[in-house]
Design goal:
- The chain is mainly alpha-helical.
- Helix content is 48%, strand content 0%.
- The chain is built from 5 helices and no strands.
- The protein has helices spanning 2-5, 11-20, 42-58, 77-86, 97-106.
Length: 107
Amino acid sequence: MEAALGVRLPADFKQLVRAYGAHHFAEFLTPLTPFAGRDLLVGPAKRLLEQERGFRDRYPEDSPYPFYPYDPHPVGAVEFLVGWLSGRISTSVFPDATESAESAEEG
């Protein structure tokens, strides 16, 4: 995956995926993986990284850190997941875990 994407994925993300695979956390969040019969990681991530590389080339002073194909947070993947599930961390990419759980119960 890393060779296909041209980036190194964080070690804790790789451990999470090894341990849980395509598991649905809070019946909503599934880490993007190339498993379970579909590649949900490489294709979409390549497109996103290509867009980000264009920005990096145009504005290198605004891009001091390597790009990864997800919303950046100052914590690792596992700490983010625990923080999101406990309500301590939120992201603009998807709803909080409590909102997601309430939606699942209503549906």
